Amino acid sequence: ENVYRVKRWGNGYFDIGDNGNIQVIPRYDQPGVKIDMREVIDEMVDSGIEFPAVIRFHDILRSQVELLNKTFRDTIEEAQYQGKYLGVFPVKVNQMREVIEEIVDAGSRFNYGLEAGSKPELIAALAYNTNQDSLTILNGYKDEEYIRLALLGLKINRKIVIVIEKFSELKKLIALAKQLDVQPFIGLRVKMMVKGRGKWESSSGERAKFGLSIAEILNAVKLLEQEHLTDAIKLLHFHIGSQLTDIRAIKEAVQEASFVYSQLVKQGVPLEYIDVGGGLAVDYDGSQSTNDSSCNYSLAEYVADIVYGFKQNCDLASVPHPHIVSESGRAMTAHHSCVVTKVIGEIHPSGTQFSTRKVTGEHFIVTNMRELEQNFDETNFQETYNDSVQLKEQALNAFKLGIFTLEELAKVETIYWRLLNAIAGHLEELTFIPEELKEIPEMLSSQYLANFSVFQSAADSWAIDQVLPIVPISRLNEKPQKLCSLVDITCDSDGKIDKFIGEEAVASHIPLHQLRSGEDYFIGVFLTGAYQDVMGDMHNLFGRLNEVHVVSYDDDPKDFYVEEVVKGSSVENVLSTMQYTPAMMAQMVKKEIDQQIQRGLIKPREGVQLIDFYEDCLLSYTYLK
Ligand code: PLP
């Protein structure tokens, strides 16, 4: 537990069982319901599902939706707040149909709605958010078609809020609303002065990409007044960035927004809703700090700061409490899915065996290195280390000058790595470890080769150094002895994960277990349900992963069933998206094989087998078997 901090980042959903396997506790209100992840994986293996694969726990998704809504409802009641909570889920955070369906279903009793940030997302929201009491909030830049779609939604009695991000959208909206004879439901997004904290802090401030300045808000109000549409202005929106690491940013934003809200209301703008956007953070590294991958607050604290903040400021200004809308995405979905992959090999700098036997006439550097090894004992760690580093350098220089053979270089390197291993073996016995020697375990660390693509499955780890928890699925009752980094199977040296949860700060290596021959070693990349699930790209044409959706039983707390299997990309699928025609490609290869048959270079039977093999590969999974 100390190594991987499962309980710290797991938000109550993950634990380690006595058998050393990861346990999933998918229902926040039923701690007795436990799913053994290794059992899920074994069932997948038995049914022939290939890895890497995404495992989704739909109960976690439901739990998060319920927790958010209940926390707001309870806090509103406790605070005697006059408004209601009407949250929306931002589709962009995970657009998968099954995710959206589950969220809409779990949220229906709370009138929990959807947020769309583009035309395609609005088209999805129109079809899936059919509850007429929940909101559909429309953000993002809008063209005429986008606005027409929104007005279509209003015509079928949906609560569609068109949030104005840019002044020019307002003019388009007014013209179309008149043309189609629909009373719009308008939100104004305000550019906030308060800065968010964390990687997305540029979402606020004067140079923010979205929103209206205060002057533009006042002009918008004036324009709508002239058009007799003042009644349509119902919502004030702000969003100061995703993954807000510091609660102070939220407190400050609530303060600023409530001043804007109350002054507008006092001027006669009939605002009824305040939308606080997204930003509720996920504690990916379990440190409960203001690290980029963490946050220094809980859901309860976040909700209380919003509800009590608006209440206090509105009471002071003697204006009604607005209904509260929030657009939390990351916190709703991050926990419910994880990527499971198998370690398929090890790349080790000191893993090669090479004979270092003495030969007559060898270079003295090799002789010196060998003597260093012979004289090594507990009294001379540091001296041996210093001398070996120097001899290795000398060997390289001698090689560059052409006075050292390849064989001699291989011998020096082999002894050097053996010495480092020997020193590392004694380090734990030392009461004081000299600074230079502390680096040895990292120098000796392995790279575990895992069958997945960072670009597809953990894009933010590569793009913005996001820390995602990485934990072996089994053997958690054994001390992990090997320090590793993780490399993927893409042909790119960037295709690796080297940001892990460390004891104090982010670590470049993670302790993992020694691989055992004949035994699968599965590792999970956790908390991938927000953004990672859907942002991945087609680097190396690996494509989407196989997926299983796991659900717990009501009557058996230890059992589960796989509700759905979604097949990942086949080679044929990914090639087609890149404009290839797989059937034609098979024909092209067949033609060449036929030519070789005619020339007598390939036997007809072998030719048939070759083309069958090519066609089978077209249909198969893109990842390694
Ligand atoms: N709303 C808007 C306008 C956003 O831009 C975002 C994401 O940045 C969100 C909601 C979702 O934010 P989060 O995932 O941090 O909850």
UniProtKB/TrEMBL annotation:
Gene3D superfamilies: 1.10.287.3440, 1.20.58.930, Alanine racemase, Lyase, Ornithine Decarboxylase, Chain A, domain 1. Residues 571-624 form the Arginine decarboxylase C-terminal helical domain. InterPro entries: Ala_racemase/Decarboxylase_C, Arg_decarb_HB, Arg_decarbox_C, Arg_decrbxlase, De-COase2_N, De-COase2_pyr-phos_BS, Orn/DAP/Arg_de-COase, PLP-binding_barrel. The keyword Transport does not apply. NCBIfam families: PRK05354.1, speA. Belongs to the Orn/Lys/Arg decarboxylase class-II family. SpeA subfamily. Transmembrane segments: none annotated. Keywords: Decarboxylase, Lyase, Magnesium, Metal-binding, Polyamine biosynthesis, Pyridoxal phosphate, Spermidine biosynthesis. Its cofactor is pyridoxal 5'-phosphate; Mg(2+). This is Arginine decarboxylase. It comes from Thalassotalea insulae. Residues 362-440 form the Arginine decarboxylase helical bundle domain. The gene is speA. The keyword Magnesium applies. PROSITE patterns: ODR_DC_2_1. Catalyzes the biosynthesis of agmatine from arginine. Its EC number is 4.1.1.19. Residues 84-334 form the Orn/DAP/Arg decarboxylase 2 N-terminal domain.
